[in-house]
Design brief:
heterotrimer, A alpha+beta, B alpha+beta, C alpha+beta, B: alpha+beta, Aldehyde Oxidoreductase, domain 4, 4 domains, 29% helix, C: Uridine Diphospho-n-acetylenolpyruvylglucosamine Reductase, domain 3, 21% strand, globular
Chain lengths: 202, 786, 331
């Protein structure tokens, strides 16, 4: 631990990066953007470690920015595109506050790189709104007071939506495990269970 | 003089009704902006290099590589060479850079050399040497103590108890005065005993308080016919706010700061930050719209907050945002003190409680921590008790919902439950028999017992200790009771009625999830007879009239009282203006259903808008103040909880079947959000009863579980059926509004521990009740019988 | 997280060439649910990340009566838990996959990644090393809080436990793992893929730095096979189990003909218990024989101090998995 905290190697040059598997780059690109290497007879684009152009499709709109490969989908949404519904809470894929839909599946956006989320439609809690209308799941969260401080709420709303899409009439056991990937600290679970039973009956 | 009394039940339009929280749509759609979400123009990202050691002296710091990195805009040494750090994760150097990645790289490039010093981070064993052998405070000790979250009183106490090892010369005191050390502390130093020979400075981590007695414990135990003994406790846990601590500081010019902080204390933050920076609080503008949890841990300013302001200054005033990483949040931004106790209770055979003896200990970091109020709720006639503060290196203690109460409750109610088992009587009967010891709330508890009994089916379902049904899964019931103050804090608000009928309220409070916005609007709308949507509410800014910090369950009592008085006064001014037009006296008017009318002849009526138009060109603004305890707000509540659990005695896994919470909080403004508070408290209680523990490693001094996969919280499927009953109506409503955030979090640990004991026949002495602890207790009991 | 360069090639030959010869050069991204956390905690510091998600041949499942069930390394845990072929031929595997982690993790995590995920040991995750030794070379695990650590295979210096709850299910079914590296493909029984490291710097898998997992093959089930798994896990929500047991029994009449009993979270590797199998073979499954097999499974277990009760939990998990299997409860 101490050596980690005290170690001084902050960055590695591009040259070192491209050398590591013994493959020399044909030329060093001067502008950010992928270098192309010939590997096993075919071109492979190598991105980074510097910023590289990234385009995400979020809530039906395209967003582009220069972003390092190490930036997560969550951080790109929040910091580059100011889409702050998904929250950074555990940042280790353990709490659910950053849940978004990617290819219609609920995922932890803190555990996906922005660069690998390209070409996959992303829907955040903001994207569930139908114009100014709350999505039925969002409205049910309000009605059942399934939120207090509200910081887990955006992730919980998206996870609940994905869960109900898959299990329109869930059993309590399915609810317990199916919404087990999201944690709340004000502890609004009772309200969220009411949301699910209200919408699960319809 | 206007009458400031809450309307009777039949005359309430909103108060006491189930109203959805007004900021619910913002939150559930992701549009609510928390401090963490705010991106200011040109904002820099701050990161902090933290001490890897629990106790060390900083020897040298080399920031040169970091400073040279492109994108790094400021580096600020928080604790430089010579400084002693007292917990792993303490702030050493802060950097600000154009993005998070760069800031992180810069932190990694800083080299710090430390001299390691001895540390203590564990506390579960009862301290063996029971003397206060910690020597006098050195200058370093004192400054370290002041740097932590230790209250001024704690610092003064330590000065008085331990003495000091240096001369408090006028020069030194002057120097410290310039560093904004409080005058009370400086005075204590002047009076302090100077002990120069300090051969014992670090020889003990344990600070023992004197024995406290009441009655004659020795005689009490002689009179007792049954004596029950046990050891009980719970470890340090952490707040784990989902929005981590932090904020954004920016110098808007060379004299003024704009601060967005995640805080429970919008009104008090400017003074705290001003003191730390040596600048007037008046020059600090604090703003916060929403906060992602606090639970007591966001009442004070922290080092990283000061660092953000200092980095901003170095970076030419650019906004600097420092939000803690999750592991730092768990390591340093929340330690609820542990408490353990060896307890002996004496009683008559009929259950009459006679005597109490307890030796308790617990850690609260370098500040020492509080001592649990033992015995809890029931004032047993004869008592002797002693508490040892474990002064260790786990990070500073912070208030956590109902400070010291959950610990005291667990220790007391577990001991009483064990006594009941030994007497072979139903614990509910034991409490009923001794309820006179719960003065002045005995009547409340008796009523609550009855409601809880019915909701849980206690009387029909309770069985003596040890479920005798076959199979590995055993079921049991447990019970606990608790109390809390909850007086409304000082609160002021401005309410304006505009001639066009619109209404605005400004109040420098914050909504920490309580539903504060909703409660304010309900009270105002109820009083003015207009819809809640007709009122614009502004909170979360220290340019508004000052409210208090949201701590100690004081907010709803405070804001409802100030809002009510402002609304009454503004309404009365409106009545005075309007009365001639209705050919009536102001006192004859009422504001109901969007109209102002003569109460006894409702045909003489003006719409709210028409009435307001009579104000002419001038809006009416009045200041409302909560005058303190009285008609509108009060303190002192009682609550009873019951738990129904199943325990698999082969795997040790405990599952909650049902929790019942019966709670009093005087007049309930909004039953919907009040119930949510209680539901949340029950769940938080399940979480600390079954899962939560800040696991410390003595060899390395670090926290082993600083992430949310290993710092385990209850999930949606883990909490069982939850039943909340609010005591309302005659006997409760007329006491006025009392706070609710803390009390229902007190009992779950004790109720669940007692239910587990009832199910499996033996006490699991320590929380959390994890499978290994349950199996261990069963094994020890089996070994004892063999 | 430290900076790295990133590529997402389409051919496995390219992947192998882009990978480094030493651990630490490069890492394979195959879902990332564990890898990104390790990188954020600075435990793993690759200079290059190779995302293999575009290797089409590593997706999907197939079944062949002779070869059995082939599971591509990039099949997600969600896909596996809902896969009709897996549910039909290896229902216990599908059940184990559906119990793992949380829905969000299962939507991203792949079966190949699950085999290669790193231990949850809190000393390791705090940057104190896989073998977690202090400056004098003494184990921090033995000195410290080992409540979740190994009760079997714990002679040292490794005391962590393997994190996968799916691997034991696969091993119980007799699965084999296929790898691809510079010398082409190789295949080994899955239990041989997991190894107990002897020195810091070694990994807990028999995977070379420039190899990838390509697929897992479960042989066609024999007749009269019954399988079940059991987790001792405290929470319903996302949680790590204390122990799990996966059992595949082949019946002959009312007697057990052969049995494979595999535990997880008890040892640095998934623990295939010969002792438990031997205790069952030739006997009818009853409460008593299942209990005896549970006892056999932990006969050689030893406590490190704080983890003593895991021995009892493992015993009970094995017993309950056997009873579930015999009753035909697949979950």
């Amino acid at each position: 631990m101490s050596d980690r905290e005290q170690e001084g190697s902050a960055g590695v040059s591009r040259r070192e990066f491209l050398k590591i598997s013994g493959i020399a780059a044909a030329s060093m690109p001067l502008i950010a953007g992928p270098a192309v290497l010939k590997v096993a007879g075919e071109d492979v684009a190598i991105h980074g470690p510097d910023k590289t152009p990234i385009t995400l499709n979020v809530n039906g709109k395209n967003y582009s920015a220069q972003i390092e490969p190490r930036v997560t989908l969550l951080d790109a949404l929040r910091q580059d595109f100011e889409i702050t519904g998904p929250k950074r809470v555990c940042d280790r894929g353990a709490c659910g506050a950053c849940t978004v839909l990617m290819d219609s599946k609920a995922v932890y956006s803190c555990s996906v790189l922005a660069i690998e989320a390209q070409d996959k439609p992303i829907v955040t809690v903001e994207g569930l709104m139908q114009g100014e209308q709350l999505h039925p799941v969002q409205a049910a969260f309000v009605e059942n007071d399934a939120q207090q401080c509200g910081f887990c709420t955006p992730g919980f709303v998206v996870a609940t939506k994905a869960f109900l899409d898959k299990h329109p009439h869930p059993t309590p056991e399915q609810v317990h495990r199916g919404l087990g990937g999201n944690f709340c600290r004000c502890e609004t679970y009772d309200g969220i269970r009411k949301v699910v039973s209200q919408l699960g009956k319809a | 003089m206007p009458e400031y009394t809450w309307p009777e039940a039949g005359k309430r339009t909103f108060i006491g009704k189930r109203i959805s929280r007004v900021d619910g749509p913002l939150k559930s759609s992701g549009r609510a902006k928390y401090t963490y979400d705010i991106v200011r123009p040109g904002m820099l990202y701050g990161k902090v290099l933290r001490s890897p050691y629990a106790h060390a002296r900083v020897v040298s710091i080399d920031t040169s590589a970091a400073e040279k990195m492109p994108g790094v805009k400021a580096v600020h040494v928080v604790q430089g060479p010579g400084k002693e750090v007292f917990w792993a994760g303490d702030d050493v150097v802060a950097v600000a850079a154009v993005d998070e990645c760069t800031a992180e790289d810069a932190v990694r490039a800083i080299k710090v050399e430390y001299e390691r010093l001895p540390h203590l981070v564990v506390d579960a064993q009862e301290p063996k040497s029971g003397t206060d052998s910690r020597g006098p405070l050195s200058k370093t000790d004192l400054l370290a103590l002041i740097d932590t979250d230790a209250s001024d009183n704690q610092v003064i106490q330590q000065i008085q108890n331990r003495g000091i090892s240096f001369q408090a010369t006028p020069e030194l005191l002057g120097q410290w005065r310039e560093q904004h050390i409080k005058e009370e502390i400086l005075q204590a130093l002047q009076k302090a005993e100077v002990k120069t020979s300090s051969e014992t400075s670090d020889s003990s981590w344990y600070k023992v308080t004197g024995k406290q007695t009441q009655g004659d414990a020795e005689k009490g135990f002689q009179e007792a016919e049954i004596v029950s003994e046990g050891t009980y406790g719970q470890p340090v846990i952490t707040h784990c706010c989902l929005e981590t601590h932090g904020g954004i500081a920016e110098w808007t010019d060379d004299k003024n700061i704009l601060a967005h902080f995640s805080t429970q204390n919008v009104p008090g933050l400017a003074e705290q930050l001003g003191r730390a920076l040596g600048m007037p609080a008046a020059n600090i503008h604090v703003h916060q719209d929403h906060v992602g949890g606090g639970f007591g841990s966001k009442l004070g300013l922290d080092r990283w907050g000061v660092a953000a302001a200092q980095l901003s200054k170095k970076a030419g005033g650019k906004p600097v945002k420092i939000m803690l990483e999750r592991d730092s949040e768990l390591k340093v931004a929340g330690c609820r003190p542990s408490a353990y106790a060896r307890v002996k209770i004496g009683a008559k055979k009929d259950g009459t409680l006679v005597a109490w003896e307890s030796y308790s200990w617990g850690s609260g970091g370098v500040g020492g921590g509080g001592s649990p109020p033992l015995p809890y709720v029931l004032n047993i006639p004869h008592q002797v008790k002693q508490h040892t503060a474990v002064v260790n290196n786990i990070g500073p203690a912070r208030a956590w919902r109902a400070p010291n109460h959950p610990q005291a409750c667990l220790i007391t109610m577990s001991a009483l439950d064990d006594l009941a088992a030994k007497l072979n009587i139903n614990p509910l009967e034991l409490y009923r028999k001794n309820i006179a010891l719960a003065k002045p709330r005995e009547k409340i508890y008796l009523e609550e017992f009855q409601v809880a009994d019915e909701l849980m089916g206690w009387s029909s379902r309770w069985h003596p200790r040890g479920d005798k049904t076959p199979g590995p899964v055993k079921r049991g019931l447990g019970l606990s009771l608790h109390t809390w103050g909850g007086r409304g804090h000082n609160s002021q608000c401005d309410l304006t009625i505009f001639p066009d009928g619109s209404v605005e309220i400004k109040i420098g409070t914050q909504d920490i999830g309580t539903g504060t916005r909703t409660a304010i609007l309900m009270v105002a709308a109820d009083t003015l007879g207009i819809p809640m949507e007709g009122i614009k509410l502004l909170i979360g800014d220290n340019s508004y009239p000052p409210d208090g910090a949201s701590g100690g369950s004081s907010t709803i009592g405070g804001v409802s009282s100030s809002t009510f008085r402002a609304a009454v006064d503004a309404r009365d001014q409106l009545f005075a203006t309007v009365a001639p037009a209705l050919n009536a006296q102001p006192a004859d008017l009422e504001a109901v259903g969007g109209s102002v009318r003569v109460a006894k002849d409702t045909s003489r009526s003006l719409s709210w808008r028409e009435a307001c138009s009579k104000l002419g060109p001038h809006a009416v603004t009045v200041r409302g103040k909560n005058p303190g305890e009285g008609e509108l707000t009060n303190s002192g509540v009682g609550g009873v909880q019951m738990a129904d659990v199943s325990v698999d005695v082969e795997t040790g896994v405990v599952k909650i079947n049902k929790m019942v919470c019966v709670q009093d909080c005087g007049l309930v403004v909004n039953p919907k959000t009040a119930e949510s508070q209680c539901l949340g408290a029950l769940i938080m209680g399940v979480s600390y009863a079954l899962y939560e523990e800040k696991v410390m490693d003595q060899a390395t001094g670090i926290m082993l579980n600083p992430h949310m996969d290993s710092y385990r919280l209850a999930g949606l499927g883990d909490v069982g059926e939850l039943v909340v009953h609010m005591m309302t109506g005659p006997g409760y409503d007329e006491r006025g509004v009392i706070g609710l955030g803390e009390p229902p979090t007190v009992s779950p640990g004790a109720a669940i521990s007692n239910a587990v004991a009832n199910a499996i026949g033996v006490r699991v002495p320590m929380l959390p009740l994890t499978p290994d602890r349950v199996l261990e207790a069963l094994e020890n009991a089996a070994g004892g019988r063999a | 997280m430290r900076a790295f360069e990133y590529a997402s090639p389409k051919q496995k030959q390219q992947v192998v060439e882009l990978l480094g010869k030493h651990w630490g050069d490069a890492e394979v991204l195959a879902g990332g649910t564990d890898l990104l956390a390790l990188m954020k905690d600075d435990i793993v510091r690759p200079k290059r990340l190779i995302n293999i998600i575009d290797l089409k041949e590593l997706h999907g499942t197939t079944f062949d009566a002779k070869a059995g069930l082939r599971i591509g390394a990039l099949v997600t845990l969600t896909e596996l838990s809902e896969d009709p072929l897996a549910s039909k031929h290896c229902p216990m595997l599908a059940a184990a996959a559906s119990d793992a982690a949380s829905p969000q993790v299962r939507n991203m995590a792949t079966i190949g990644g699950n085999m290669c995920q790193r231990p949850r040991c809190w000393y390791f995750r705090n940057g104190l090393g896989l073998l977690a030794k202090d400056s004098e070379g003494k184990s921090l695990v033995l000195q410290g809080d080992n409540r979740y650590h190994a009760i079997l295979g714990n002679d040292g210096p490794a005391y962590f436990v393997g994190p996968s709850t799916v691997a034991p299910a696969l091993i119980a079914y007799g699965a084999r793992i296929r790898l691809f590296g510079p010398k082409g493909p190789r295949e080994l029984p899955l239990e041989k893929f997991f190894v107990i490291p002897k020195a810091e710097g070694e990994r807990e898998h028999d995977l070379q730095p420039n190899e990838i997992v390509t697929e897992i093959v479960v042989p066609p089930p024999a007749a009269n096979v019954r399988a079940a798994h059991y987790e001792v896990r405290q929470k319903e929500a996302f949680d790590w189990p204390y122990v799990t047991a996966s059992v595949v029994l082949q019946q002959e009449g009312d007697k057990v003909h052969s049995a494979r009993v595999v535990m997880s979270h008890v040892a640095p590797i998934p623990w295939l218990s010969e002792e438990a199998s031997q205790a069952l073979v030739g006997k009818a499954v009853t409460e008593a024989t299942a209990d005896a097999a549970g006892a056999a499974a932990v006969k050689n277990a030893k406590s490190l101090g704080r983890n003593k009760q895991k021995i009892k939990m493992a015993h009970v998990a094995v017993k309950r998995a056997i009873l579930r299997a015999a009753k035909g409860e697949q979950a």
